[in-house]
Amino acid sequence: MNEIKSRKTIVFERQSSSTKKYIEIITLVKQMILKGEISPGDRLPTEAQLTEQLGISRTPVREALKILESMGVIVIKRGEGMFLQRPLSGSEFNPLIFDLLMMSNETERLIEFRQYFEHMVIEMAVANRTPPDCEKLRIYIEEQEKQIESADKISWIELDIGFHLMILELTRNPFMIDIGKTVYELYRNIKPQAIASEDRKNTIATHNLYLELICRPKPQLFEQLRSKIRANYAALKFS
């Protein structure tokens, strides 16, 4: 990618609505892009500046930036700042992904969608994975097992999501990967509420079943995994 240079000073106006704050920020960025107020190469305000300009805490700002980065809307360059990464129009700002963001407060629907989405991911991963991929998954699970007692809640969530992101990459399908990354980013926001009710050993067992199914597929394993996923989600309790 060509060197990105800031062309103007970007200022975000304070917002006031009942929408979740991180969604509000993403919506604002989309509107500014469509209006031409932000152009490719423009440097965005820093996290601290955004917090001050929008009049909100850093937590939703960080959540919004993570999602925008995962969607490829912005690029964060260490030591340089955040930039709008590429030209975006109404059609290029993936409407399906944006709709997922807008519905992220529908927790039960998000969980339901992820269950069925993961079935598609697994089937595509089975079709496209290679032997080295299987070894990488195995090593990842071993590392996760080593941290089963020591990892704090947030670190454990990252380990769990990291595993699913690896499987997502095995699909070799850009559509699946783009949508999947957004789904997992949204899931990251609800996971902390559920972690206390989830058995870490059960998570490892589920991941081993993923490995077995992807690398040594057998028809009966699909139903085992479906039952395991349903049981895992049924155990989630939200405050």
Which secondary structure elements does this structure contain, and how are they paired or packed?
Layout: H1 21-34, E1 43-44, H2 47-54, H3 58-70, E2 74-77, E3 81-84, H4 95-102, H5 107-128, H6 131-146, H7 153-170, H8 174-194, H9 200-215, H10 219-234
Antiparallel strand pairs: 1-3, 2-3
Helix pairs in contact: 1-3, 3-8, 4-8, 5-7, 5-8, 5-9, 6-7, 6-9, 7-8, 9-10
- The largest beta-sheet arranges its strands as 1-3-2
- Number of alpha- plus pi-helical segments: 10
Q: Which bin fits the share of residues in helices? A: 55-70%
Radius of gyration: 19 Å
CATH class of the largest domain: Mainly Alpha
Q: Tell me, briefly, the overall form.
A: elongated
Structural class designation: mainly alpha
- The name of the CATH architecture of the largest domain is Up-down Bundle
Low-confidence region ranges: none
The largest pleated sheet is described as:
3 strands, antiparallel
What is the name of the CATH superfamily of the largest domain? GntR ligand-binding domain-like
Structure notes:
The chain is mainly alpha-helical and 239 residues long. It folds into two domains: 1-93, Arc Repressor Mutant, subunit A; 106-234, Four Helix Bundle (Hemerythrin (Met), subunit A) (Up-down Bundle), CATH 1.20.120.530. The chain is built from ten helices and three strands, in the order αβααββααααααα. The protein has a three-stranded antiparallel beta sheet. A hairpin with a 3-residue loop joins β2 (74-77) and β3. α5 (107-128) runs parallel beside α9. It is elongated, with a radius of gyration of 19 Å. The mean pLDDT is 79.
